[in-house]
Specification:
12 helices, 24% strand, 5-stranded antiparallel sheet, alpha/beta, Enolase-like, domain 1, FAD/NAD(P)-binding domain
């Protein structure tokens, strides 16, 4: 049978675009579909616009600190509409870049939601398309619990398009990276922010010391941390703000905007996976093997829809490996070990390798080194923001197996150190490296004193 394409990709986000371009470079006839805009979550309503908002939210503190350095400033005000619209102009520009990348690679774009009719047939709008091989790269979407009044809440998708002026009071429900990033953004932009967390602290799954450090820093910044709290229902007068949030334990409080950031789920609904015998795993993600292959022999999946490591560079790596393997005849598996990551909260958190808790479970004896200090930038201003750094070393091999940082430019520093961790650098090699003075980064090569080991708890007296 002659197919319309050698490869058809469902989803034009980072992973799908990379896979399609690389496959086309090997001579494959490639088509791709997208139901909204090209670029995916990261470019359109994720990492890129969110980090631009982070930059914008930091200027209030910068203006305050400038006075200690001799700068006299007049009254400063925020025009949210200007920031919002300029961010969207950059999103528009990047969308155009992605469109040109596909066109330049010879990949045919079909606008519309892709749906599998069988293992080789895809429906996009009124079109029916056939392909020898198919790649699912449909990403993820925000999910909020269906509580009473949930229709009054927004998600991160809508947060980029709020009307001007911003609400005075914003409540964010969730303790993950999206929640804490937006809490910092809105707090920096002058809103009163409540962060509602089901557990005792934010950022579950990150290194315990780091998440505690960030949690305490957010509280000091003025964000109200409503820990061990669950929302039972949202009440609105005439369907408008202010909203009254009723807690499971009987408490209640008011706010002008409710944003749910309680997690994202793989975008698998309504794309016909069952008609192509593509199975999901227990988490509802597309089940794949180490080569990103699904349970259908001609169908693969990459990115957030597989719920492995939900990061844009990981999706790009998976898409590139798929194309190299299937169309370039250069078999290559994606390597999910020692993937660096960052949370652009304020202060910033970044890490690579194992958390102390993971290392304690999987390795033998550890040596842990930490440093806490106030950055030089704030010594003149009096700002009490501090930086925390941590090295986790496997005692038997002297290998640095985890590097963590909370503080300004943490992501920039950890990106470089990720190379060292990936290469298997030892603590002795860190120690032998000359630092750049005065910088925050030099602390990573000057930590010499091991943190005292926690003392075992004494058994309770009988």
């Amino acid at each position: 049978m002659a197919y319309d394409y050698d490869l058809f990709v469902i989803g034009a986000g980072s992973g799908g675009v990379r896979a399609s371009r690389i496959a086309a470079s090997y001579g494959a006839r490639v088509g791709i579909c997208e139901d909204y805009r090209v670029g995916g979550t990261c470019v359109i309503r994720g990492c890129v616009p969110k980090k631009l908002l982070v930059y914008g939210s930091k200027f209030a503190h910068e203006f305050e600190d400038a006075q200690a350095y001799g700068w006299s400033l007049g009254e400063v005000t925020l025009c949210w509409a200007t920031l919002r619209d300029n961010v969207q102009k950059e999103v528009d520009r990047l969308n155009g870049v992605y469109l040109r990348l596909l066109e330049g690679a010879g990949v045919k774009l079909h606008m519309g939601r892709g749906r599998l009719l069988d293992r080789h047939t895809i429906e996009v709008g009124s079109e029916t398309i056939t392909a020898d091989k198919i790649l699912i790269a449909s990403g993820g979407r925000p999910e909020a619990p269906p509580i009473s009044g949930h229709q009054f809440a927004i998600t991160s998708n809508e947060a980029f398009h709020l009307p001007d002026p911003l609400p005075k009071r914003i409540t964010i429900v969730g303790g993950g990276y999206i929640a804490v990033e937006f809490a910092g953004i809105f707090n920096g932009l002058g809103c009163e922010v409540d962060l509602v967390i089901r557990r005792d602290r934010i950022l579950r799954g990150f290194d315990e010391e780091c998440r505690t450090f960030v949690h305490d820093a957010l509280a000091r910044s003025g964000i109200r941390m409503r820990t061990e709290t669950q929302i039972a229902r949202i009440e609105a007068t005439d369907g408008k703000a202010p909203y009254r949030l009723h807690e499971v334990n009987g408490g209640a409080f008011e706010t002008d905007l409710v944003m749910y950031a309680t997690g994202r789920v793989p975008n698998t609904a309504g794309i016909g996976l069952e008609k192509a015998s593509v199975q999901l795993n227990k988490a509802g993600a597309v089940a794949v093997d180490e080569w990103s292959k699904t349970t259908a022999e001609n169908i693969w999946a990459v990115g957030d829809v597989t719920d492995r490591i939900n990061l844009t560079p990981v999706a790009i790596m998976e898409g590139h490996c798929f194309a190299d393997t299937v169309f370039g005849h250069k078999p290559r598996k994606p390597d999910h070990r020692d993937v660096p990551s960052a949370v652009f909260c304020q202060p910033e958190l970044a890490s690579v390798g194992l958390t102390e808790e993971e290392a304690a479970r999987t390795l033998g004896e550890l040596r842990v080194y930490t440093a806490t200090f106030r950055p030089m930038k704030y010594t003149l201003t009096g700002r009490q923001q501090r930086t925390f750094m941590k090295l986790i070393v496997e005692a038997a091999t002297d290998k640095v197996v985890g590097v963590h940082m909370v503080g300004d430019d943490a992501a920039e520093l950890i990106q470089g150190l990720a190379v060292a961790v990936k290469a298997g650098a030892t603590k002795a090699q860190f120690d032998a490296t000359v630092g750049i003075h005065p910088t925050a980064g030099e602390e990573f090569v000057t930590m010499r004193t091991e943190r005292p080991k926690p003392q075992p708890r004494k058994a309770a007296a009988e």
